[in-house]
Design goal:
heterodimer, A: mainly alpha, Fumarate Reductase Iron-sulfur Protein, Chain B, domain 2, 2 domains, three-stranded parallel beta sheet, 21 helices, globular, B: mainly alpha, Arc Repressor Mutant, subunit A, two-stranded antiparallel sheet, 5 helices, 9% strand
């Protein structure tokens, strides 16, 4: 893997950088090739009349999405968003200021779809869609992780992620896409998971994890696969059966189910919770990726669906599933669909159905990294703020030492890990490292002040991204872990009955 | 997208230098890729690569990291059956760098 060439120095606090024009204009994601584009129904290469197609598609999107139209019209250039983006803070490139990034699309919108733009052109902030503008689109709309931190600070609530998604969607209509995301969408649609793990490998992998738990605890804990008629279908990101620290959370879920004494199963057909359809705009693939889950839940006749630690997929599950793949009238109406594993575990703790030994995590001083899509695009549990409070309740139930990072960098103001929105690919490692600067800064603060040595999170992308980039800031890789990794360490097996 | 030239053979790779066709792999190719990656292949490095290839041949996918660490622990001693040791061997990561040298496709997803 290529090492980053430009690693920011961590300061005592997150500083607003002086602008460096074009600082990241050369950071480019690998473009998708024909073999990635055509299976998803996109043109395999750029057509001659790409300009007209793109403008037409923009017009269609403006009609389909009133919010996009409002976002195009309503920005007053107040500047509130400018210093809120982790990529701007880390890269110094002015086009990574959310308003500037949006304007790459907005100026084209003005040129073709507003009277003032048509008449006054540049004076009205309008610009034609040229080759250069398109180049900027590809560069900078793939330097947005759709994390929506800027939107929290926008007085009009402009959702930059929606603008980015629209721009990506327009590019797809003219055969321009990013290899990383499109390759993964095709893989999950054909194999059932982002990694392309076949059933045979999945079976063997789960057996190894079962052995692992037994070696560690002396208790036989099953991780069932394809058990029709189970009460619970667990859908979790496939990274949970592949990478560290992800697997430790999966072992945690298994222990929780074991101790609750419930019947549950994973599915080899729907072996992925992640849904990269969210990142590319449009509903078609978002729906197609999610559909496998509803289909298998119906076939297995489960009562409920519980989902594992995955940030953007929780947004998809919580906010979109019902319209995408619902109604869930075939599931038991007593349960929420989907239920997050954190709310499930927390419920068991509140009922006294599972017991945790906090001392098991005494070697750790834990802090919580809120993942953007959980924090800003969903909720959890029955109360406002549950998406913040429930994971923290699990930390407090599992650990004696928990400290918070700077409140300007947590909960709804959390910083993206720097690898979300389809940007977890190798070739933009510089962008990923720089984008992680704000989080690394606030983490380093609590490492220095409180000896934090574990940053807990509930997102597979965050886990993979931080494990890769934090070492470049001299922060050890193993500081990264899942909430259910802590639960897994602390849960007492076989000591109580439900 | 590119290609490696090893002993007169042209070996197509993807943009990140992963081989397009795993059947073209040979020890010589592995040595070549390792050199580009700045890795000096020792016996321990070969254990990882050989295990990755064996596993891939059977399952058509790279193994979960835990399966790899366990296998290495068995071959080289328990103290070496962990992720830290694998990162010592392959600083670019066992899933990415070791797979590349073993001629496996690049793992995709949130990894």
């Amino acid at each position: 893997m290529a090492d980053p060439t430009n690693i920011p120095e961590l300061k005592d606090r997150i500083e607003i950088p002086k602008l460096v024009e074009g600082a990241t204009s050369h950071y480019k994601c690998h473009p998708a090739k024909e073999k990635h584009l055509t299976p998803l129904g996109f043109p395999g290469s750029r057509p001659d009349d790409w300009h007209d197609i793109a403008i037409t598609r923009l017009g269609e999107l403006l009609k389909e999405s009133k919010s996009l139209k409002v976002f195009m019209d309503i920005c007053v250039k107040c500047g509130a968003c400018t210093d809120k983006c982790h990529y701007y803070l880390g890269t110094k490139d002015p086009k990574n200021m959310p308003v500037a990034r949006q304007d790459l699309l907005r100026k084209v919108y003005r040129k073709y779809y507003t009277l003032s733009g048509k008449i006054f052109g540049k004076l009205a902030g309008a610009e034609a869609l040229t080759e250069d503008v398109l180049k900027d689109w590809y560069t900078y709309f793939y330097q947005c992780s759709e994390c929506r931190r800027c939107s929290v600070f926008c007085p009009y609530g402009i959702d930059t992620a929606e603008v980015t998604m629209a721009a990506r969607e327009i590019m797809h209509s003219i055969g321009i896409g990013q290899k990383y995301t499109l390759e993964i969408i095709d893989k999950v649609e054909t194999t059932g998971n982002n990694l392309g793990i076949p059933e045979g490998a999945l079976v063997g992998t789960l057996e190894v994890l079962e052995e692992e738990i037994e070696e560690e605890t002396g208790v036989k804990v099953k991780i069932p696969l394809d058990q029709k008629g189970s009460d619970i279908l667990l859908i979790t990101p496939s990274a949970d059966v592949f990478s560290e620290p992800h697997i430790f959370s999966l072992m945690g879920y298994a222990k929780v189910f074991h101790q609750a004494g419930v019947s549950w199963t994973l599915s080899s057909y729907a072996s992925e919770f992640a849904n990269f359809g969210l990142f590319i705009g449009g509903q078609e693939h978002l729906q197609k990726v999610a559909q496998r889950i509803a289909d298998i839940a119906r076939e297995f006749k489960v009562k409920r669906i519980i989902v594992g630690e995955c940030g953007h997929a929780w947004r998809v599950g919580y906010s979109y599933w019902n319209t995408l793949i619902g109604p869930f009238d075939f599931l038991d109406p007593d349960y929420k669909t989907p239920t997050h594993i954190c709310e499930y575990t927390n419920g068991l703790i509140e009922q006294g159905a599972i017991k945790l030994d906090k001392e098991a995590n005494d070697e750790y001083v834990v802090t919580m990294h809120d993942s953007c899509n959980v924090a800003r695009a969903s909720r959890m549990g029955d109360k406002p703020g549950g998406q913040f409070d429930i994971p923290r309740a699990l930390i407090d139930a599992s650990c004696n030492h928990h400290v918070e990072m700077d409140p300007n960098t947590t909960k709804e103001k959390t910083f993206c890990c720097g690898g979300g929105g389809g940007l977890l690919s190798e070739e933009i490692i510089d962008l990923r490292v720089q984008g992680a600067m704000p989080r690394a800064t606030s983490l380093k603060q609590v490492m220095d002040s409180h000896g934090v040595n574990f940053m807990a999170m509930i997102c597979a992308i965050c886990k993979a991204q931080f494990s890769t980039v934090l070492p470049y800031y001299d922060i050890p890789r193993d500081i990264v872990g899942g909430i259910h990794q802590l639960v897994s360490n602390a849960i007492q097996l076989g000591t109580n009955k439900v | 997208m590119g290609a490696l030239e090893v002993s007169g053979m042209t070996i197509p790779t993807d943009e990140d230098g992963f081989m397009e066709d795993t059947d073209q792999w040979s020890q010589e190719v592995a040595e070549f890729i390792a050199k580009v990656e700045g890795i000096d292949m020792t016996d321990a490095h070969w254990e990882v690569v050989n295990f990755l290839r064996e596993y891939y041949t059977e399952y058509k996918i790279a193994p979960m990291i835990r399966i790899l660490t366990k296998a290495i622990g068995k071959k080289l001693g328990k103290d070496k059956g962990n992720t830290k040791y694998l990162y010592q061997l392959y600083p670019g990561g066992p899933a990415k760098q070791a797979c590349k040298i073993a001629g496996l496709p690049k793992p995709t997803g949130c990894v």
